[in-house]
Amino acid sequence: MEIIVSKDYEEMSRKAAELAADSIRENPESLVSFPAGDTPLGMFHAFTDMVNAGTVDISKARYVSLDEWIGLSHQDKGSCGLFLDENLIGRLKKPFAETHIIDGAAADMENERQLLDRFIETHGPLEVSVLGIGMNGHLGFNEDGVDFELSAHIIPLSETTKQVMTKYFGDQFHPEFGLSQGISQIMAAKKVILIANGPHKAEIIGRAVKGEITNKVPASVLQSHPNCYVVVDQAAAAKL
Ligand code: GLP
Questions:
Q1: Which atom in ligand 1 lies closest to the alpha carbon of residue 178?
Q2: Is residue 67 flagged as an active site residue?
C-alpha cells in the first residue's frame, strides 16, 4: 500500500483524480469504477475538470457503478446513480464510451446483478477502482463478514450502514439490501485508490491499513493488493 497524506480535502481529491487519470492515460480503453458517497465529490469535480480541459481523454474508456441501494433508481434522491449523474456523468462535456449504472429499482434484481458481472467480465478487469470506506470498513456494500471470493452480489446492509445512511435519505427511505461489486472484482483491478477524509474516518482507516486482514474489516483486504494507494487528508490519517 502506498499511503498519501494530503493536507486537506481538496488536495486529497486532486491527488485521487490524478491517479485515476494516469490509469486512463496509460490505457485509454480502461474500465473504471468510482464510488458514490460524500467522500468522492471533490475528486469527481477535479476529474471532470481534467476531462473538460482535455488533459485526459475518456472517449474510449468505460465506467461501471460500484454499488447501489436496492429499491432506488438513479432518479431517486440519495441513490448512488443520481449522485453519479449529477456530479460525474452530467458534468462531462465529452462522455465515456459507455457507462453501466446499476438500476437499484429493477424489477428483477438477480438479473441486474448478472448484468453487472457480465459488464465487468466483458470489459474488465477494472483498470482503476476508486473506493470510499464505510464506518465499519465496508467497500461498496461489501459489509463486515463478506466472503472475499464473491463477485457482484446482493447483500443485507449492516446495522452501521443503516445508521449512517440517514445522512443520505433522512427518514424517507429504509433500504435493507445493497447490490455491490464483489471484493474479487475490486482485487482484480490493476490499481485501487482508497480515499477518506475527516476525523470520523481515522479509526477505521487505521484498522484497514494497519490492522489484521480480516473480513470483519473488509477494506483490510487491500493490504494484499499489489498496487493500492490510500489517499487521505490529515484528519483521516490520525491513526496511521
Ligand atoms: C456508502 C457506500 C460506499 C461509500 C461509503 C462511504 O454507504 N456504499 O460506496 O464509499 O459508504 O460513504 P461516504 O463517502 O459518504 O462516507
A1: 8
A2: yes
Asked if 9 contacts 38 with a C-beta cutoff of 8 angstroms, the reply is no
161 ligand 1 Cβ < 6 A: yes
Report the C-alpha gap between 184 and 139 in whole angstroms: 12
Domains of the chain, first to last: 2-233 (3.40.50.1360)
- Which segments within 23-124 are labelled E, that is strand? 31-33, 62-64, 67-69, 98-100
Instruction: Retrieve residue 49's grid coordinates.
Output: 475538470
CB 56, CB 26: distance < 8 Å? no
- Alpha-carbon span 33 to 131, nearest angstrom: 8
Nearest Cα to Cα of residue 168 among 137, 132, 209? 132
Q: Which atom of ligand 1 is nearest to the CA of 66?
A: 9
What separation in angstroms does the CA of 144 have from each of 21, 37, 67, 172? Answer: 30, 18, 16, 25
Predicted local distance difference test score (pLDDT) of residue 167: 86
Q: What is the pLDDT of residues 77-96, one digit of tens each?
A: 899 999 999 999 999 999 99
Confidence of residue 195 (pLDDT cuts 50, 70, 90): very high
pLDDT of residue 212: 98
Predicted confidence band of residue 171 (pLDDT cuts 50, 70, 90): confident
